Amino acid sequence: MKSFSGGDLEDCLLNKVDLRRQQVSQAVEEVQRVIHRLTTEISHQDIRFQAVPYSDIYNGNIKVLAPSQFLVTVPVKGLAGYRDTRERRWRYYTLQGTRIPCPLRNPEGLQQWLEVEQFMKSLWQWHEADVNIEGDIVPAKVLLVFRKLVENAIRTCHLSGKVSMLANCEAVWVAMETSTCQVEIELVPTVEIPTAWSEKAQWPRCLKRWPSPEKVECIKSFGFNLSARSNYHWQLSFSQAEQMLLEQLDEDGGCRRQCFQIMRQLKEDVWCPGKRPVITSHHLQTVLFWTCEKYPHLKDWQVFSKALLRLVRKLHKCVSQHFLKHYFVPKSNLLQYANSSELDSVAQKLAFFLKNPQISLP
């Protein structure tokens, strides 16, 4: 066991961070080559879906939630000129299009309806019954169409020995063999809306000094996304805005990024390892953003050990309470549907670490 405050441990963890970066970069490289092939074939079969581009630098469509868990957003095509409109209040249909006497529940938190009429331009295919019910573009129907396209593309691209569909999932998941391990990938059809900022996003908050007003305007200019990840409601996503916040973390010379990387390494090695961990990098990133907002000054990010322990305390509080507010839409709890016993197990490990900050490195 080594004391957390010791420089040897910090150096050791930073070496592991560097090794992780290399391994993840290799996995991302392999994943994006395969995903580019699959989605290129899908775009040839159905004009409503775009190919995920290949990038030599950073691919904004691929998010690493854990070393063996990836989220890939697949842009849809043919929906342009988004505008917020007054929505119909009630819906009375099933996913099969039949009428029901009681209305569907309204969207909450990160969710919203999506009507084809909210776009000034739309391909006629988005009005078709395979994805549209009473003017709504229904995510469950989009996922059903997309799943069949993915299955066909795997066969057409002769990738059956490398990529397989994962069963028992509402979303579209595939398993892929890389040169080092098997990774699991969620493929999410996504409406990109670069021209607007969601009305649900309560950000920036009043009297907050992080980030600066100039950066806020820049970040909001990237807009938001709507992802098909549930039955009736589309899920808001702010991946580009979050990436901009991450890229501009330490312009003042602080240690925010290093603290995040070390916390992520400890999470993956000790507190919450595994293929589909209950706590992902996105949860840690959200904890980081809230802490940066609460402690905006450089003086709070100059002593590495103090700054990291502050982050871990915030993480422990959120995991213990099963409550982590989304950074842009605070009414949404990112841990609402997480497994309670798994959260409690992570909270116990975090409490042990905070009581005695030393760690046995695997």
From TrEMBL:
Gene3D superfamilies: 1.10.1410.40, 3.30.460.90. Pfam families: Mab-21, Mab-21_C. InterPro entries: Mab-21-like_nuc_Trfase, Mab-21_HhH/H2TH-like, MAB21L/cGLR. Residues 58-248 form the Mab-21-like nucleotidyltransferase domain. Coiled coil: none annotated. It comes from the Eukaryota. Residues 255-351 form the Mab-21-like HhH/H2TH-like domain. Belongs to the mab-21 family. This is Mab-21 like 3. It comes from Sciurus vulgaris (Eurasian red squirrel). The gene is MAB21L3.
